[in-house]
Amino acid sequence: MIRGYGRQAVQAAEGPALSAGRPLMRWAAGGVAAAVRGELDGLGVPRSKARVLVLVGGGNNGGDGLFAAGLLAERGVVVSALLVREQVHADGLAFARRHGVRILVHAPDGAPALREEDSAGEAHSPIPDGVAWVREASLAQVWVDAMAGIGVRGGLRGASAAVVGVLDRLRQGQVRPARRVIAVDTPSGLSADGGVVSGPVLRADRTVTMGAMKAGLLLPPAAGLAGRVEVLELGLEPEFAAQAALVERLEAADVARLWPVPGPGDHKYTRGVLGVVAGSGTYPGAAVLTVGAALRTGCGMVRYLSKDGAVADRVLDHYPETVTTPGRVQALVLGPGLSDERDQDRVRERLAEVDELADAAGTPPPALVYDAGALSVLPQDPQVNRRRRAVLTPHAGELAELLSARGTPVDRARVEADPARWVRIAVEVTGATVLLKGAVTLIAGPSQAFDGGKGIRTGEVGLLSQADGSPWLATAGSGDVLAGILGALLATSEAPVPLLAAMAALVHGRAAHWANPGGPVTPSDFVRALPGTLAQVLTLR
Ligand SMILES: NC(=O)C1=CN([C@@H]2O[C@H](COP(=O)(O)OP(=O)(O)OC[C@H]3O[C@@H](n4cnc5c(N)ncnc54)[C@H](OP(=O)(O)O)[C@@H]3O)[C@@H](O)[C@H]2O)[C@@H](O)CC1
Ligand SMILES: Nc1ncnc2c1ncn2[C@@H]1O[C@H](COP(=O)(O)OP(=O)(O)O)[C@@H](O)[C@H]1O
Ligand SMILES: [K+]
């Protein structure tokens, strides 16, 4: 489980360690310097030809950058530090100077004038324009962004913003970008607390974050600017364990531990039965994908309940193990490949039938996945959805439509600018658990739905973020597969719905990768890859 913390929690965790005199900044700088050396090696740059530009802000983030600069210079790398503030971390600056780092000072408020220290590091000689540092930037194979970390307030301003603008233009003009950008703690300008991007940010290839994962690095759209994120723990694990996280991310080992594996005493009905209402004359393939994904995820039985003979025949052609007679189910997937009003009536009828069967048997009503064409038939009353295990699986456009239809007008762009906020609003408005699809999938649920995770501390957090897939997943039918995986999980496990949704997102992304690592895949490919993917995940159990 990866736990993402906000600024307050980080400060609370670091405070006692700093008071105890632990040299956290030196350790942080060591981690940054090691990451820079790793990137230089990856680019095949010999140490004698290595050049690094470190962007230095006025706080401790800049301090990390200055110590890292000194450590690199100590090893023979040519390092320049561009100070975007007059006052920077004094010990860091002294350390950098001592090891021969070239110090350039950017004028405040983005004015292009610069000055450079002389070799004694005391007087500053004026440089007429910004050419010196831009030249340095174009020569450097690695840029280290240490302008601001968790201390940032609002979007980048002044010299920091100007520097990002110039570097972005420099980068765009490059034919072959043989350069890496490493962000210290966070890409400067991003908040530790959330995923909103409110100003210019230098997109990083790699972020070395201090002490623990920051919530903002797990949340879109900010997460998309951080590149590969690695946590430098700095021995603060016990301190962070005492803090509340703002967001969580399941890892494969968590999924393995929570996965509903059948035991020797199980039979098909104890494992759980899934009903599927999906596919139509217009989109028959959605039924095949949803049923296939559920079967290959593993459940006692899949009933295809749409009562559309032509589509049912196609499903049976692909999966003869599908049952097409009505009967009791523990979960129901509604909506993939449904489009018109007749389809929606069909959803309501099938739902009424399965609820009636459950009622007659004295069992709880089945859990529900509302996907695609069924999102519009979700009951209006949030209490109704809260009482049963219901989960919605919209993408940003569908979420905007759903909220707008329920008196909370919003468009797709606003959802995409702050999905963590809108997914929570959707939980409040609908009463259901909501899985918002995208490059990063966000899941939020009514808080009581998080109680009782098997061995996982989830009580205090209402938000999960999964980023297990790749852009190859963005292909028609991909969402139908996710709905099938989630349906099978809901039918076979009593675990909290948000956890099951996060597990489904992880397995979905991994199966697409497993089907063809690093290349294109079709939803049919990743349906076929599901059993192998799961077997691999379950080795971590
Ligand atoms: N605490 C620890 O033990 C450890 C902490 N560590 C490190 O400390 C970092 C936190 O340091 P911090 O608290 O000093 O703040 P920090 O991120 O440097 O930001 C302040 C700077 O940002 C600037 N700035 C702000 N807003 C801005 C804007 N909109 N636009 C432009 N500039 C803006 C602000 O400028 P000012 O507003 O003062 O003009 C000032 O220069 C943390 O992220 C981690 O890297 C590690 O060493 C491990 C040990
Ligand atoms: N850029 C991306 N990176 C990773 N996963 C993505 C990306 N774009 C979409 N996905 C995933 O692909 C699936 C697309 O689902 P959906 O939008 O419902 O497509 P469809 O309706 O065509 O099946 C979702 O699970 C989503 O999270
Ligand atoms: K930074």
Automatic annotation (TrEMBL):
Domain YjeF C-terminal: from-to ranges: 251-537
Listed cofactors: Mg(2+); K(+)
An example molecular function term from Gene Ontology annotations: ATP binding
Annotated positions binding AMP: K437, G438, A439, V440, T441, G479
GO BP terms in the entry: metabolite repair; nicotinamide nucleotide metabolic process
Catalytic reactions of this protein: (6S)-NADPHX + ADP = AMP + phosphate + NADPH + H(+); (6R)-NADHX = (6S)-NADHX; (6R)-NADPHX = (6S)-NADPHX; (6S)-NADHX + ADP = AMP + phosphate + NADH + H(+)
Binding site for K(+): N61, D145, S188
Metal-binding among keywords: yes
Residue ranges of every copy of the YjeF N-terminal domain listed in the record: 2-242
Gene3D superfamilies to which the protein is assigned, alphabetical: 3.40.1190.20, YjeF N-terminal domain
Pfam families named in the record: Carb_kinase, YjeF_N
Cofactor: how bound: Binds 1 potassium ion per subunit.
Keywords: ATP-binding, Isomerase, Lyase, Metal-binding, Multifunctional enzyme, NAD, NADP, Nucleotide-binding, Potassium
UniProt cross-references to HAMAP family, sorted A to Z: NADHX_dehydratase, NADHX_epimerase
Subunit field text: Homotetramer.
Family: Belongs to the NnrD/CARKD family. Belongs to the NnrE/AIBP family.
Name used for this protein in its record: Bifunctional NAD(P)H-hydrate repair enzyme
Gene name, Swiss-Prot/TrEMBL: nnrE
